[in-house]
Design brief:
Elements: H1 2-5, E1 9-14, H2 27-47, E2 51-58, H3 70-79, H4 90-103, H5 113-124, E3 135-138
Parallel strand pairs: 1-2, 2-3
Helix pairs in contact: 3-4
Length: 148
């Protein structure tokens, strides 16, 4: 549609660090995110020069995410053998899980929706106007996701 209308623009897809970090039990998710990374590169070639196409690949976002209701937080705490009590508030449980994910990174800081929004903003702004076909990771330095 952009080409037919002669419009320039930016397209930013959400992918995931799981595109490069496989883990047991998430075959479909990890594979689809790897495909999304490649789709970014293909679309960048297809839509150039009118449209810049990039991706944002966050690590797990727990706090502020609707993907982590209380039951999923508890299941994740149990999966990772993180001590918790059923009577703890959802906020306390969520903080424990977010800390677990943060502690796996170099910055030791949880990834938030605001962190992702900042990456999207940079990619659609003129600050990165010469960037296309790239995946910007927002993962706090998740070294398991470093490309080899």
């Amino acid at each position: 549609m952009w080409r037919e209308q002669g419009l320039s623009g930016n397209l930013v897809l959400t992918t995931s660090v799981n595109a490069v970090v496989p883990k047991k039990g998430s075959l479909a998710y990890d594979t689809s995110k790897a495909a999304a990374n490649h789709l970014v590169r293909e679309l960048a070639m297809e839509l150039a020069p009118l449209v810049r196409v990039n991706g944002v690949a966050p690590a797990t976002v727990v706090q502020g995410s609707s993907m982590f209701p209380r039951d999923r937080v508890i299941a994740s705490l149990a999966k990772y053998n993180i001590a918790y009590r059923e009577d703890e508030s959802t906020d306390v449980l969520t903080s424990k899980l977010a800390k677990f994910y943060a502690d796996r990174t170099l910055t030791k800081s949880p990834i938030t929706p605001a962190d992702q929004a900042e990456a999207f903003f940079l990619l659609v702004s003129q600050r990165l106007s010469k960037t296309t076909g790239q995946i910007l990771t927002v993962d706090g330095g998740l070294y398991d996701a470093f490309l080899r």
